[in-house]
Q: What sequence folds into this?
């Protein structure tokens, strides 16, 4: 079965640079979520999109922005990177209004290292 | 605000034995879902099991089962016949339901499970 795809898998950036993370949800999934997992931490919700519209916002810094495109893929844009942004960034997708399972399926994550 | 607490930072089990991981949560909502996710060393987040709050019957998926006590706000995971591949970090997660969608997951801090051969 198709899974959530994230690219790139690893990314190394310097402080104050910009990074773009991409997520391709499972086909026919209408909702995308972004989570940030710091070292030794639990995943923290950043932002979500339903049918290409922002649906919920968590602890996402103002330096970050995201959007979902017409083909349902999503991008997380991160500017003015700080050392503390080094983390594993997960994208997850769900199809609540069609499956009613309310399960979120996670991609493999993008490991961002800021030096 | 909803919170999820996992009081066991680390647990250990002998291969083929049974282990129970604890999770409690705090919410004033009546409609919600609870999940257990497994995160092996690869860091992939893998859904293990799901429980709907409105269901009294405990969920079961092969060797994994839950003990859901809604009044006590408790949601423990039992792993039977533990295997070496079960070694991982296990996260308990809560998801509110509103509008039929749009609920992000709230995670506990995780329990690191070791399996001894």
A:
């Amino acid at each position: 079965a198709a899974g959530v795809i994230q690219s790139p898998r690893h990314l190394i950036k310097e402080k104050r640079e910009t990074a773009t993370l991409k997520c391709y949800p499972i086909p026919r999934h209408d909702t995308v979520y972004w989570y940030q997992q710091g070292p030794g931490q639990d995943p923290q919700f950043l932002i979500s999109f339903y049918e290409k519209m922002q649906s919920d916002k968590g602890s996402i810094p103002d330096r970050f922005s995201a959007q979902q495109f017409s083909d349902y893929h999503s991008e997380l844009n991160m500017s003015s990177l700080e050392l503390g942004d080094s983390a594993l960034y997960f994208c997850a997708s769900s199809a609540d209004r069609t499956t009613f399972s309310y399960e979120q399926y996670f991609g493999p994550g993008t490991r961002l290292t800021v030096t | 605000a909803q919170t999820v607490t996992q009081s066991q930072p680390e647990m250990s089990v002998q291969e083929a034995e049974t282990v129970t991981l604890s999770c409690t949560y705090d919410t004033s909502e009546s409609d919600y879902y609870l999940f257990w996710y497994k995160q092996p060393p690869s860091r992939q987040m893998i859904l293990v099991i799901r429980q709907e709050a409105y269901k009294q019957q405990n969920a079961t998926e092969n060797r994994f089962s839950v003990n859901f006590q809604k009044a006590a706000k408790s949601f423990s995971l039992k792993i039977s016949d533990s295997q070496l591949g079960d070694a991982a970090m296990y996260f308990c997660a809560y998801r509110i339901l509103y509008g039929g969608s749009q609920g992000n997951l709230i995670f506990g801090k995780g329990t690191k499970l070791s399996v001894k051969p």
